[in-house]
Automatic annotation (TrEMBL):
All residue ranges annotated as the SSD domain in the record: 586-768
Keyword DNA-binding appears in the UniProt entry: no
Protein name: SSD domain-containing protein
Transmembrane feature ranges: 235-257, 328-346, 587-605, 635-662, 674-694, 714-735, 742-768, 817-840, 1066-1090, 1102-1122, 1134-1160, 1172-1195
SUPFAM superfamilies (UniProt xref): Multidrug efflux transporter AcrB transmembrane domain
């Protein structure tokens, strides 16, 4: 094939199909040929025009391969031998000819190449990077070939009309036909590890220089497991079973020993001085009564003495007498203090910015983001639309979306987006006003339509679907496949639902609109973007009831659905807007929850017959007339008291919010929903216990005595329970996530205020309510007084009979738990569940799913990229002659093990591309005019003699870098930096020769679960830390999602430390501590069963669970401590005394409020405030009313009531000591 005999319709030159003896070129042509084809010397078999054609054709591929000289040399030798070798007739045979303008031209050839050359050529090039697109060069110049046969098949294809490539078919042959006289082309081939043409470790991992730093094998987290038959069991599960068997066996043995010992011990005949009445009135309600009796007895007989020693807390509660005498003063004073705190609501502000809600102060990721944004440029805002096909009803597979109809539909959608206008400060804003324009005036929209220059008129001209499929494989090497903004477009960024490189099988179009972003959130740039984003959401969102929009907007979703497709979308401001909507989405649910709890409180606090007998004692002592029952019901109602209690809860919440607003702490709308519910649930418990304690007092005592005795009875347990909850939330305020920290702070103060109001204002309200009832005034209408004419009523009010629940606790529940066999079963079952929960807790994942935070009907999707940024530019490059352990080489090696590194591709390196762009081999890139100014794409910037060891000098570097960053990429030079690297280098102070900051971009592997995000961030930080130490350069990884996931790196440590601090407050009670630990462990087990993740929200809930679980324990434990008798009798007495109040005032109160939350629209309510709270209530109830009494009956501390014998006048006397 000698000389040129014509051109095809596309302008491509065609060789002549006849041979010619080789000729000796002139000196200039020989020099040119030697510069491109060093393997050819002497005579050649090509004309100068043929050589220039060869030079032009390989020019497109050179920038991809010049970073690896061995690969480039082998690749050029393949085509140099084809075009100019004097021996080409020995390995090239023309197999097809065609006639063009009367001349015969070559239309097909056989090219005989040795298998060794093909194999070594491929091996030298297969790992060469194309940094601009974060991928391998073989993907561009070889269509992702997996071996040299596939690469040769791709290279040898005859180019279709309008497409670049070979003008004739090249059939690469690896075997020579017999007696053909042909030979295999087997010119010298260079290994990429050749030291004379050495490639970097990133381009040639098998290079001897890189052999000492081979990529580590993927780190697999192998968990210890044992196979039992066909069942594979984890070692931790086996260990738990062994521990369980040992503990249960030891416990059963100890129990049997104790049981035999008790049977042998003589029965004590000592009878405690303080006893319960047959009616079940608890001992503490008789303290005042016993004291009066004792005083009278002492007057009659000086030998009898009685001494009562009250604890400090009980002594403080005696102030109830003073409160009962001055209810108006107490009520007004307490309300006045809270109202003063409420004045801070004037400065009330709500925080809705996601980064301020979820990123803690001093966050390392936040500091790195600030550095990145200020020195380089903030990540652009992302608006996205995804069209996807529906699965086939027969096989469940998604059909391909790459069809003519779907592309035309995408053009229609794009037309609507282009025509979208938003109002901002009186001016109309369109996409072209705010979009990212890296290479000119066209938006850098990432869409499959870019293969048609975003113009529907080009669809048919370019060849329709066939053109799109061609561009999927040639998107960086064909002018017609370049985007409208003159940059190659990777099909993997605009398609979804495909495997490998089978882009034509894609089931989704992904359209991304990058929009300009600014550091200043209040700037016009962001304001215009936000305004357009709202209009964009209105355009794409499905119209709902009551939604009014333009007709074109309402047509969009039906248009997509009519094509049997689905549409999803998101915008940069979507998370913030959805968080705002989430904050108001469950108002009705919360209100209903409050109403249900209010109705329950009214019933629980009341004393009406038929309703109250289920929970509290009735005033009825004998049958009365129906009219008497109605009158008693009207008098016994406590609706106003319940409503007043609810109002106190509201005031405590408002006081808390007001205080923090006054000191400048912003609130969140979710706080205003959760905290009132939480404080109400907590406050109701104490209100019920206080009211029931007052009603248990003997009516013959004066009102001051009843109030005082009630506070003495339940005050310590109420105080301890409230303080436990307050301190639990106070510990939660150390959580780094601002939203949870602020929530804990607000909740702690609200519960504190609620507690103070309960023991002051609510006690005063109880006094008023008792005075109303004694004065025979109707509850809701206190001005109406009902005259009492029923003798039986007065006679019956001096005694109370137990309610149904109280009788159940005393007569059924307590005796059953007292049985030895039941105790054994209870201990065994609860211990089994706790140990199982320990094993299950290892399966809990960290993170907080976005779909959980947002409403259930939210439209948001998630995507992410990653950048690796360095504050120095030394030891970074990864092309030939760079350090083997350079940053970019290490990133390339890490991309080979994505399972552990979570790095999917080599980094896009402006430095590598800049050095290639400067290289004399890349003769289509850096060029300058004779006056020294840049020639935007024939004179080269440098010759080899101008460079020092192939590198530019400091002056050359400083001069040419701005040229590179402003050079537009083209088919002749894909390495130009404008667009791809415009914001990758901070040129501030560049004149001094210092680059202050730069970034190198790569991608994470697909991140589907929260754990993937956390693990990828952890791997990136470990990688950068290792490289920083190795290169002595400050390097840090950065991605837009890092600031939101940084907290999960050590969430287990935070959780365990805070739980330990919260539990450490209760060291004085080993049994309560044991129950609380089991409660938290069991809650962790339930989290694992329900797939609830560990995050700041669940950590706060776990800490809070300690405070709430105390309520289930402390009242029973306190009643046990002040009960007489042995452990079994005291446990039964504690259940009989406080069991009903704990069940009705704590369990059912929380239960009725929690159940309503299951109807919430916000998934975070359902998961973290319904499922976790419900599990907490049930676990707390079982541990408080089942497990705790059993443990107390077996291991409980001694009673604080002692029988003291004092000898006076030689006769014994007894007194009571309560300590």
């Amino acid at each position: 094939m000698y000389d040129i005999c014509g051109e095809n319709s596309e302008g491509q030159v065609l060789n002549c199909p006849y041979g010619s003896p080789s000729v000796k070129p002139d000196e200039l042509l020989s020099a040119k040929i030697q510069s491109l084809c060093p393997s050819i010397s002497g005579n050649v078999c090509c004309t100068e025009r043929q050589f220039e054609t060869l030079r032009t054709q390989v020019q497109q591929a050179i920038p991809f391969l010049v970073g690896c000289p061995a690969c480039l040399r082998n690749f050029l030798n393949l085509f140099c031998e084809l075009s100019c070798s004097p021996n080409q007739s020995l390995f090239i045979n023309v197999t097809a000819i065609s006639e063009v303008n009367g001349n015969l031209t070559v239309d097909g050839i056989d090219y005989y190449v040795s298998n060794n050359f093909g194999e070594e050529l491929y091996n030298s090039c297969k790992d060469v990077k194309f940094g601009t697109m974060n991928t391998r060069a073989i993907d561009f110049i070889g269509a992702g070939a997996k071996n040299f046969e596939e690469w040769f098949a791709f290279i040898g294809q005859k180019a279709a009309p309008g497409m670049p490539g070979s003008p004739y078919t090249i059939n690469f042959k690896l075997n020579i036909p017999e007696s053909s006289g042909m030979e295999l082309m087997n010119v010298s081939v260079y290994s990429c590890g050749d030291t004379s043409l050495g490639c970097s470790c990133g381009d040639c991992p098998l290079s001897p220089v890189c052999s000492s730093s081979e990529p580590p094998s993927p780190q697999r987290k192998e968990t210890c497991s044992i196979r039992v038959g066909s069942l594979k069991v984890k070692c931790v599960e086996i260990l738990v079973v062994i521990v369980y068997i040992l503990l249960v066996s030891a416990f059963f043995g100890w129990s049997l020993f104790q049981r035999k010992r008790e049977r042998r011990a003589p029965t004590s005949t000592v009878e405690p001085l303080l006893k319960l009445t047959d009616e079940g009135v608890p001992h503490s309600s008789h303290m005042q009564e016993d004291e009066n009796i004792s005083l009278k007895a002492n007057e009659m007989d000086p030998r009898l003495t009685k001494r009562m020693k009250l604890s400090y807390v009980q002594g403080c509660m005696m102030y109830g007498t003073w409160v009962a005498r001055n209810p108006t003063l107490v009520l007004c004073t307490s309300l006045a203090i809270v109202i003063v705190l409420c004045l801070g609501l004037i400065r009330f502000k709500v925080e809705t910015r996601p980064d301020k809600l979820w990123v803690g102060h001093g966050s390392k990721a936040a500091e790195e983001k600030q550095f990145f944004d200020s020195h380089l440029a903030p990540f652009y805002r992302i608006e996205q639309v995804i069209l996807a096909t529906l699965p086939d009803s027969t096989n469940g597979k998604h059909p391909s979306i790459v069809t003519e109809d779907n592309i035309q539909l995408l053009f229609e959608i794009q037309n609507k987006v282009d025509g979208l206008r938003a109002n901002y400060s009186g001016s109309l804003v369109s996409l072209t006003d705010i979009c990212l324009k890296p290479l000119g005036e066209d938006c850098a929209t990432q869409s499959v339509l870019q293969y048609f220059k975003m113009d529907p008129e080009n669809y048919d001209d370019y060849g329709g679907v066939v053109h799109a499929e061609y561009c999927f494989q040639h998107y960086a090497s064909t002018d017609t496949c370049m985007s409208a903004f003159e940059a190659p477009l990777d099909p993997s960024t605009v398609l979804g639902g495909f495997s490998g490189n089978n882009y034509s099988e894609a089931s989704a179009f992904v359209v991304t609109y990058p929009v300009n972003n600014a550091i200043d959130e209040t700037s016009n740039v962001n304001g215009m973007a936000v305004a357009w984003e709202k209009a964009f959401i209105q355009l794409v969102k499905r119209p709902e009831g009551g939604y009014s929009a333009k007709l074109e907007m309402e047509e969009l979703v039906p248009l997509v659905l009519s094509s049997n497709l689905t549409i999803t979308f998101s915008s940069e401001s979507s998370i913030e807007e959805e968080l705002k909507r989430e904050s108001t989405a469950d108002v009705i649910t919360i209100v209903v929850s409050y109403l249900v709890m209010f109705a329950y409180i009214s019933v629980t606090l009341g004393d009406a017959p038929r309703l109250s007998t289920f929970y509290i004692s009735s005033k009825m002592s004998k049958p009365v007339l129906a009219d008497d029952s109605i009158i008693n019901s009207l008098l016994a109602l406590n609706v106003v008291l319940a409503l007043s209690g609810v109002m106190l809860v509201v005031l405590s919440v408002l006081g808390s919010v007001g205080f923090f607003s006054a000191v400048g702490v912003k609130s969140t709308l979710i706080i205003m929903e959760v905290i009132p519910f939480l404080v109400l649930a907590v406050g109701v418990d104490n209100m019920c216990i206080l009211v029931h304690a007052v009603k248990r007092q003997p009516l013959e005592l004066p009102l001051e005595g009843r109030i005082s005795n009630a506070l003495v009875e339940v005050g310590p347990s109420i105080t301890l329970a409230s303080l436990s909850e307050i301190l639990a939330f106070a510990v939660g305020s150390f959580i780094p996530m601002p939203a949870c920290r602020v929530f804990s702070m607000f909740a702690a103060l609200a519960i504190l205020l609620d507690f103070l109001l309960q023991v002051t204002a609510f006690v005063a309200l109880i006094v008023f309510d008792c005075l109303r009832a004694e004065d025979n005034r109707i509850d809701c209408f206190p001005c109406i007084k009902i005259p009492s004419s029923h003798e039986d009523y007065d006679e019956g009010t001096d005694r109370r009979t137990s309610g149904l629940l109280a009788r159940y606790m005393k007569e059924v529940h307590a005796p059953v738990l007292g049985l030895w066999g039941v105790k054994m079963v209870v201990i065994a079952v609860f211990l089994a569940f706790s140990l199982a929960s320990i094993a299950l807790s290892t399966r809990i994942e960290t993170g907080l799913e976005q779909k959980v935070v947002l409403p259930r009907d939210s439209y948001l999707q998630i995507a992410s990229t990653c950048s690796l940024e360095s504050r120095d530019t030394n030891k970074l490059c990864s092309i030939s002659q760079c350090d083997s352990n350079s940053l970019l080489s290490e990133i390339s090696r890490a991309s080979l093990i994505p399972e552990s590194s979570h790095i999917a591709k080599p980094a896009a390196s402006w430095l590598d591309d800049f050095l290639v762009w400067l290289s004399p081999e890349a003769f289509g890139c850096c060029r300058e005019f004779m006056n020294g100014t840049y020639c935007p794409p024939d004179d080269q910037c440098f010759r080899h003699s101008d460079l020092v060891n192939g590198r530019p000098s400091t002056m050359q570097f400083r001069e040419k870098l701005p040229w590179f960053l402003n050079a537009l990429p083209s088919a002749d030079c894909a390495k130009a930096g404008h667009g791809a690297y415009s914001s990758s280098v901070d040129l501030t102070g560049y004149e001094s020769g210092v680059i202050r900051a730069t970034e190198f971009r790569t991608y994470h592997t697909p991140l589907n679960k929260q754990g993937d995000y956390v693990n990828s961030m952890r791997a990136a930080r470990e990688f950068s830390s290792k490289i920083s130490d190795s290169l002595k350069i400050q390097i840090f990884p950065y991605s837009v999602f890092y600031i939101f996931f940084e907290q999960y790196l050590d969430i287990w440590r935070v959780a365990l430390i805070n739980i330990a601090i919260a539990l450490g407050r209760l060291w004085s009670s080993a049994i309560i501590l044991l129950v609380l630990v089991m409660t938290v462990v069991d809650l962790l087990g339930v989290m694992a069963i329900l797939d609830i993740q560990l995050n700041a929200v669940s950590v706060v809930n776990l800490i809070m669970s300690i405070g709430i679980a105390v309520e289930f324990c402390v009242h029973i434990t306190h009643a046990f401590l002040v009960s007489p008798g042995d452990r079994g009798q005291r446990a039964k007495e504690a259940l009989g005394t406080m069991g009903a109040s704990v069940f009705s005032g704590i369990t059912l109160t929380k239960l009725v409020g929690v159940i309503v939350l299951c109807f919430a629209k916000s998934e975070i309510f359902v998961v973290y405030y319904f499922q976790m709270y419900l599990a907490l209530v049930l676990i707390g109830f079982l541990h408080g009313l089942v497990f705790l009494p059993v443990v107390l009956s077996m291991f409980g501390p001694p009673s604080r009531i002692e029988i003291i014998e004092i000898q006076q006048a030689d006769e014994p006397s007894s007194s009571l000591n309560l300590s």
